[in-house]
Amino acid sequence: MSEILIKNVTLQGQQVDIQISGDRIIAINPHPKDEGVSGGITQLMSGIANFFSGMSSGDHGSGNLPNIAKSGMSRSAREGATVQKMKVIDGTGKWVIPGLINMHTHSGMSLTRGFEEDKPLVAWLNRVWEVEQGLNEEMIYWGTRLACLEMIKSGTTCFNDQYWMIDQAANAVEEAGIRAFHSYVFLDGGDAEKAKRQRKEAEIFFERSQKWDPRNHFTIAIHAPYTVCEENMTWVRDFTKENNLLIHIHLSETQNEVNESLRLYGKTPIRRMYDLGILSDRVLSAHSLWLNDEDIALLGETGVTTVHNVNSNLKLASGFRFRYQELLQAGANVTLGTDGCGSSNNLDMLETMKTTALLQKAWREDPAALPLNELLDMATVNAAKALRLNTGKIEVGALADLVLIETRNCAFTPMLDFYANLIYSANSSCVDTVICDGNILMENRHVPGEEEVLARANELALKLNGRI
Hints:
The strands form three sheets. An eight-stranded parallel beta sheet has the order 6-7-8-9-10-11-12-13, sandwiched between helices. A four-stranded mixed beta sheet has the order 3-2-1-4, with helices on one face. The protein is α/β, with parallel strands linked by helices. The protein has helices at 37-53, 57-61, 75-79, 121-132, 137-153, 166-176, 192-209, 230-243, 255-265, 269-275, 293-302, 310-315, 324-330, 341-344, 349-364, 372-379, 381-387, 418-425, 450-464; strands at residues 3-11, 14-21, 24-30, 87-90, 94-98, 100-105, 156-162, 179-186, 216-222, 247-251, 283-287, 305-308, 333-336, 402-406, 431-436, 439-442. Helix 11 (293-302) links the parallel strand 11 and strand 12 (305-308). It folds into two domains: 3-98 and 400-448, Urease, subunit C, domain 1 (Roll), CATH 2.30.40; 100-387, TIM Barrel (Alpha-Beta Barrel). The protein is built from 19 helices and 16 strands.
């Protein structure tokens, strides 16, 4: 079990020591002015004792102790692991924030970064599906490793994914050390035989996912209402409800999608999904961009989580008037995502937050349209709520998913407002240390093994895109 003491780090303007045992934050104490490391160790062991004394005997007996996890180790190795020597991190000059959560991406598409530019969604999708015919398991594994590396480097500790060959993606995530939600994707195109086969495959993958590392989670995706038959959509509705699974769906992404739905069914995509009984608080609705007032009311009524993917929306010219305030007032849960590298070109949630805020202010002509605290909530605690994770916040008992931001640089000088500097002037180069599940994934901006990931991913990307 890993033990970490982060000394003299700044949390919401206060100097504190954060103590981590296993996968949990067990204590947050004011940092003593002249305390040495030995004193910190004493506090750490006291914090461990207090943490476990607060657990019931049933917690111990049922094996519900904090997960023992170490990046790169198999589950069996972790289960047999013993307490390691405590790691002490000097947090001087650094602020700590919760690990960011990317609520919509296609991780394996990192291999298609820059492959098709200056195209609208439909033309872009046709090219994507053509290239994806050449994907194999090795490409999915290394493409996902590349995505994980990029996310770690930019402060993301968890992502909600929708792509192919999810066993390979789960293996990559386990090795990388972060958290992920992997969707089995329904995309049948109205083919009855394919639709039937996908229902069977979804059941098989659900069973196989029970053996995944605990940081990997299984979900089901309806790619979009226009690519999946109603029989499969209602099957997904019932199967996910029975097994308490999340549904990940592209919904109301473009004006053309809405217009076609109105032409074919006489209702918007949101209304259609509502009438099919699909909308619920288990639904993660990617994009949710072209919404009328009734759509927003339905999303709020059913507690759907919407995912704003601002950079992808802008780059594909899908639209820009994301109705954040109306969704919030209606009761929908609003989060942020990057989309995949094929359309957004990066997985940087800091950049996503900045663009989101600037665009809301611009199109509403209101500089207060999206306050900083709400913006950070969208990238952390709102997302954690949607994924049913005890993370997205820094408090005792929460999962130890933390990011240390180096502030001794131009972007944070002067330090008048940390969050303003973080969102509007900083970039991912200020992310110094990343901890997920109580394990240090990056320290001093270096991720172990990153050189191999870059080399292998580049080689396979060139092969996939016909360059070699």
